[in-house]
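The record is passed on directly below:
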Amino acid sequence: CSSLAIGTTTGYRLFSLSSVEQLDQVHESNEIPDVYIVERLFSSSLVVVVSHAKPQQMNVYHFKKGTEICNYSYSSNILSIRLNRQRLVVCLEESIYIHNIKDMKLLKTILDTPPNTTGLCALSINHANSYLAYPGSASSGEISLYDGNTLKTACTIPAHDGPLAALTFNSTGSKLASASEKGTVIRVFSIPGGQKLYEFRRGMKRYVNISSLVFSMDSQFLCASSNTETVHVFKLEHLTDSRPEEPPTWSGYMGKMFQAATNYLPAQVSGMMNQDRAFATVRLNISGQRNICALSTIQKLPRLLVTTSDGHLYIYNLDPQDGGECVLIKKHSLLGSGKMEENKENNLQPPLPQSYAATVARQSTVPSASTMPGYSEDGGALRGEVIPEHEFATGPVCLDDENEFPPVSI
């Protein structure tokens, strides 16, 4: 959650999320129009791009150098791409392709997956636990868990009654959260065992389409956004231990009454009563738009970020102790036309140095012969052109040899 990538009708843009007040554009490319997928490998200079012009082709770029590393074509349209430091996963409607990100070679093809029209899948960002989750059924909320390192099926989790709508791993790959198309209940499971750990109720009044589900980096919070105006943040904690400490209020008394009543109710009903409500919420001023949320630490404070499909980024303060209604502190335009207008109040600050992407553009034509070409974290700003061995289990990567990227035979 340290950078933001957006696809546009003219190409794609990459932003740094290191500051609340200033949205720094790291890179902009107008080489490929109508980009609908752009995935960046953390803060590195590797990006994967798919456009509507060639929806069956994946292009992998080193954006700092302005060079293409490789491209692959598939048998049908690419619906989503996920990547970590070990694996690159390409999801089609009825198949999944797993590549070794070290050399981009195809390691495994999972064929005949249940119809997955939205390309729903999740990959752990922790490359030591490269677990992949995807729908195991088109009619029910079954999750197939696959080990991307051993290339074997780990388990099947019967998560929901209805079809799945959202999946996400926590930062260590030890937990998996899911939501169904109804969008009323969000469940968290242990990985790789698949035991249910938490169950949160987003709301009972109406079904919603949950478009984004994300853990905080410390796995203490889980955020869910949908096509409604409300974003929910849940706290992953068990409240049963604290209930005896509650003061003797009317609400506390009623809570105990309900707790006692659950012993006489069917399991389905009593489970619903015991579900935890949202710890914090955000009220957006828009509804019906697809959006993506994130929980991040920016300038040492916890923030909730929401990016909407109309090209805006909203940054909220999140109170990690008391929760409640999150306060909007900044709104940024991502499409350029409103950028200066959004940042008028920053005019009193000293001008920022030229963007990093613009600075290195002049240098990228003459790579240093003393370093091994590769893609490094932070776009190479701090570590030159070398990938340190600890970034990949198998060491540095040479990306100049085209023989490392043979075409895929479908």
